[in-house]
Design goal:
Strand content: under 5%
Largest sheet: 2 strands, antiparallel
Number of strands: 2
Organism: Nonomuraea marmarensis
Structural class: mainly alpha
Protein name: MerR family transcriptional regulator
CATH topology of the largest domain: Multidrug-efflux Transporter Regulator, Chain: A, Domain 2
Strand order of the largest sheet: 1-2
Order of helices and strands: HHEEHHH
Number of helices: 5
Distance between the termini: 66 Å
Keywords: DNA-binding, Repressor, Transcription, Transcription regulation
CATH class of the largest domain: Mainly Alpha
Oligomer: single chain
Length: 128
């Protein structure tokens, strides 16, 4: 398959296919004498798998590592569960940080409603 067909079937752009090839998500494509990339049908499924992992919260480096572990053989849910645990831990940390930021913003809003606006007095101790 040419790169355009792979991109269409996988639901991504041609640039994404090229990027995934450069980053190791896809193995390097064979080339025709004309220089055109030629991919096997498995490239579409590999891209779909990569996108599914990214939608779960995996970074691109984690996607590459997980796919390479699968390629090496022997990967099982048991042996790979730690990857999902790491993603969940990272998401939980982000949620906690966002909760802290939201609490600070909500407190600032309450101060503003009470006439103690932190926005207009930033850096000035006189107006606090």
């Amino acid at each position: 398959m040419k790169i355009g067909q792979v991109a269409r079937e996988a639901g991504v752009s041609v640039d994404t296919v090229r990027f995934y090839e450069r980053r190791g998500v896809l193995p390097e494509a064979r080339r025709r004498p004309s220089g055109y990339r030629m991919f096997g049908a498995e490239a579409v499924e590999r891209i779909r798998s990569a996108k599914a992992l990214q939608e779960l919260g995996f970074t691109l480096d984690e996607v590459v590592d997980a796919l390479h572990a699968h390629d090496a053989g022997g990967a099982t849910c048991e042996s790979e569960r730690w990857r999902l645990e790491a993603v969940v831990d990272r998401i939980d940390a982000r949620i906690a940080e966002l909760a802290r930021v939201r609490d600070n913003a909500a407190a600032s809003l309450e101060d503003c409603r009470a006439g103690r606006c932190r926005l207009t007095s930033a850096g000035s101790a006189d107006h606090r």
